Predict the structure of Putative Cytochrome P450 CYP99A1.
Amino acid sequence: MELSAATVFLSVVSLVILVSFLSRKTSASSKKKRPPGPWCLPVIGNLLHLLTSQPQAALRDLARKHGPVMSLRLGQVDAVVISSPAAAQEVLRDKDLTFASRPSMLTSDIILYGNMDIAFAPYGAYWRMLRKLCMIELLSAHKVRQLAPVRDGETRSLVRKVGAAGRGGEPVNLGRLLCSCSISITAKATFGRLCDEELQKQYMPVVEVAVKEGGGFSAGDLFPSLWFVDVATGLTRRLWRTRRQLDAIFDKMIAECEAQRAEKKKTSTTSKTTGDEQEHLLSVLLRIKDEGKLEVPISMTSIKAILFDMLTGGTETTSSAAEWIMSELMRNPDAMAKAQAEVRQTLDGKRPEDHEGLIDKLRYMKMVIKEGLRLNPLIVARLLYYFDWSLPNGMRPDELDMDMIVGSTARRKNQLHLLPSPSRELPVEI
């Protein structure tokens, strides 16, 4: 039965009145002085200021008016925006322990197994153990060097796919290809030889749904008293369904990895790996769990949460950063020409397998795209080395769409489409 307009209107008005009452009650209980900030509306607070395709620009403009430490009210939630190097240093370094913990959200509570991952775990012994584990066992310089063949092979594959897709003179969906490349690199680093195309086909859609559903704030995150809205809209149900799908994939991979480790113990005189062996992330986590030498033992739930962090962080962050870098270079032809000339001068005559070792010599690229170089420099360097790039349909650089969607990362609203023109012989498959 369809609801009448009057019924819908009365329901909305009742909901607004309820939220307004709860908001006043919450604010009345807190008399702490807040930093300066813009005007805010009843119920929604400052959400209206951020309803734009470029929220970072809106925050910049507000900070220019209200100062580097600015307060906002997002629904029923108070927030403070830091917009200067000095203030950021005080928050992130000088008073790091005070601000170390993040608020729990619906997505992190469900998808991240009750905030058991690195990003959302509250500061304490467990979080310190995870940080130490990552720095020593997962993200050390030695581990990064071990994964060089994976990065080399997958970025070569990306170059070949770009060349094949642009062979007919059609625009290439560079955003999609970058995402696929990042997923392959992250998956092979996480699961090693256990990761094949079939596995990627299984978990890629699940990870994409998890990032999409949990990439922003839910109604309950901004209006805690209206938590039931997430249930009514089906968001809670969809997140739990995604969690069960992730569980099935992780359980399968853990079982296969455990079987491989057991077989290796039978066929080897020692259970320790040799210097020539490369342990993937899952194998490292299971080994550390079995050794039981950590101050706070990790469980299978912890392992699953860490795996999800690595899969989404290594995929979404890297591909988004590389896509933004290419977008900015396309908008600034002079910067593109300088970066491309430096890359080609440095890499010309060198073997493809030696490219990554030469990245440190790209001084101009370091200045132009520092964030991209921190994440995965080889992707951008090889795209600039092997191809000349142009915008489709006669588009001018200043016409390139730079709208974004802010979620777990600030990614492009519309994926980047460019016209590649090979300038070098493409690398062969290894």
In short: The mean pLDDT is 82. Residues 392 and 418 are 6 Å apart (CA to CA). The chain has 18 helices and seven strands.
